[in-house]
Amino acid sequence: MNDRISLAHGDGGELAHQLIQEVFVDTFGHQEQAKLDAAILSIAHSRIAISTDSFVIKPLFFPGGDIGKLAVTGTVNDLAVSGATPKFLTASFIIEEGFPIVDLKKIVQSMVEEAKKADVRIVAGDTKVVEKGSADGLYINTTGIGWIDEHHTVKPESMQEGDSIVISGTIGDHGIAILSARGDLGIQTEVQSDCVTLNHMIAEVLQAVNHVRIMRDPTRGGLATTLVEICEDFNVTMEIDEMLLPVRREVQGACDILGYEPFYLANEGKVIIIVGKEDEGKVLSILHQYEIGKEAKVIGKVIGKGKGKGKGRLFLRTPLGSTRRLDRLSGMLLPRIC
Amino acid sequence: MNDRISLAHGDGGELAHQLIQEVFVDTFGHQEQAKLDAAILSIAHSRIAISTDSFVIKPLFFPGGDIGKLAVTGTVNDLAVSGATPKFLTASFIIEEGFPIVDLKKIVQSMVEEAKKADVRIVAGDTKVVEKGSADGLYINTTGIGWIDEHHTVKPESMQEGDSIVISGTIGDHGIAILSARGDLGIQTEVQSDCVTLNHMIAEVLQAVNHVRIMRDPTRGGLATTLVEICEDFNVTMEIDEMLLPVRREVQGACDILGYEPFYLANEGKVIIIVGKEDEGKVLSILHQYEIGKEAKVIGKVIGKGKGKGKGRLFLRTPLGSTRRLDRLSGMLLPRIC
């Protein structure tokens, strides 16, 4: 690892993984918690989940949302995919001197609206202001707390060969929407960010399916990076089929021009759900009832379990019928994506 | 209120109060929670407290601590003064491209050490990197969760005339240490930041005294601003005696040169405890057993309760025997103090 932070340390890819592993996970000494998006904590009579995220997205306003909406959906979704019912959020703001109050109000209003939809309460906050040039407009941290219901939880250790990998909808929308909104790559699209809270839909899946193996929201680093993390953390090998990936035509078009692959692009309103083959129909029929899940599909399966050479890996079956190993997003794709 | 954010919106003084009231408290709709440093939340079989704080202190390393130590002590103390036993922290980092990893490691190490002393676990984290020029080195958010023991809690509504105001030690140390470390005001002192976790000492006070009225840690805005907030939030009138305020000689000296008043300077390891007159001796004897409380003193009292003209105010008795009304810190004293 280089001795200075580079942008690639923050993009959710390989260098970010190394940095987090080396600097934070090892130092704080929690290898287990690092495997899920939220910390699961036993308390006397119940269990709570806690998740934290700072949002530095650029631009602050984008098609489909703004940093405030994103700050709520991001943390709510992290709790939801951990199997928790999101309940409370804190919100902390670092604001650059000179930032228009009217914009701040809009952003706070977005937070309130999104929190209401998700049925969570914003219960504590903090504000800091830094001198002009010391922050880029506004950064927001949200930390969320949710309850874990013992009866409806996820059991990643139970993943096994043959399990189905479900994605709740099209991939890459957020990544392309932000890229387009920035205008610095010369592309213009109609794509909106998929930024949305998923907790109610996820709760219905957890209620209906007793044996959900694992859920994750594929944000920074995209679908592929998130699946690679699951493969490595839980010693499973997976294969996804490129032909099955739901990708909007405009997103695929932008990727073709820019040389990106949609499965490395960020999403902010999608969930990966891994379940036994026997449960995939039930999961799909629930997701399809929701506007935000109507394009849900099975995109691949777990093809092996266990440690050893060639294990714990993610493979992509290409349209030509060949398979290609996918790794974490390597190097920087897009800074400030969330 | 101006239509743009100024530095004074972030210093804990009058403009900051207005901003928070107008933009956050009103919008989020929690007038009650805004009165305490942490949100107190009922859960099925217990109650938890949640507090969040972003740290943007400059410089990152200062006499007596660094941003990592501060990020732990700040949130731990916010929970402790709310009557909670701090248990869990989350830590979220916004890092500027180019930041030395060796410094990041030092800072994370400080967090771990301070968390250990405070007996709290850092249970979740997040890292974002922003381009050079988009942040000033490093910002840290910590969010803390603690348990509320029904038997040992604070009851601000029970404040009454005659109650004693105790401060746990010298005021203004943090403010002067940071000012000196920055070097931009041309003063040099030996003063160290008082940055320290107070939770064990506070827990002993709560165990011993059944009727603690309220506790607060006088950080941004200092002793005076914090007391004014208590006066306004709970409709009490207070008087503190300038002659009784514990102030280090070096801090007073720096204040004399700079035209500051020590009771507006930030502290990061002090607690204000308000108790009935009958309990002040017990509180002092506990505080005096701790190195961090050995200079604890009674500095004033509650002189009235109720609403109306001239009520809900803070007065300072001066060495000349006259009294002077103190308001919140107005205008900017020091940006980036925590």
Question: Summarize this, please?
Answer:
Chains A, B: InterPro entries: HypE, PurM-like_C_dom, PurM-like_C_sf, PurM-like_N, PurM-like_N_sf. Chains A, B: One of its GO terms (biological process) is protein maturation. The structure is a homodimer of 338-residue chains. With 338 residues, chain A is α+β, with helices and mostly antiparallel strands.
Task: Describe this structure as you would to a colleague.
2 copies of one chain form a homodimer. The first copy, chain A, has helices spanning 14-28, 67-81, 101-118, 173-182, 199-208, 222-234, 249-258, 280-287; strands spanning 39-42, 47-55, 61-62, 65-66, 84-96, 121-130, 138-148, 164-167, 214-216, 236-241, 272-275, 297-305, 314-317, 323-326. In chain A, helix 2 packs parallel to helix 3, helix 2 (67-81) runs parallel beside helix 5 and helix 5 runs antiparallel to helix 8. The longest helix of chain A has 18 residues, at 101-118. Chain A has 338 residues and is of the alpha+beta class. In chain A, a hairpin with a 4-residue loop joins strand 1 (39-42) and strand 2 (47-55). The first copy, chain A, has 2 domains: 32-148, 60s Ribosomal Protein L30, Chain: A; 156-326, Phosphoribosyl-aminoimidazole Synthetase, Chain A, domain 2 (Alpha-Beta Complex), CATH 3.90.650.10. Helix content of chain A is 29%, strand content 25%. In chain A, the strands form 3 sheets. A 7-stranded mixed β-sheet of chain A has the order 9-11-8-12-10-13-14. A 5-stranded mixed β-sheet of chain A has the order 1-2-7-5-6, covered by helices on one side. Chain A is globular. Chain A contains 8 helices and 14 strands. The two termini of chain A are 24 Å apart. At the A-B interface, helix 1, strand 2, strand 5, helix 3 and strand 6 of A face helix 1, strand 2, strand 5, helix 3 and strand 6 of B.
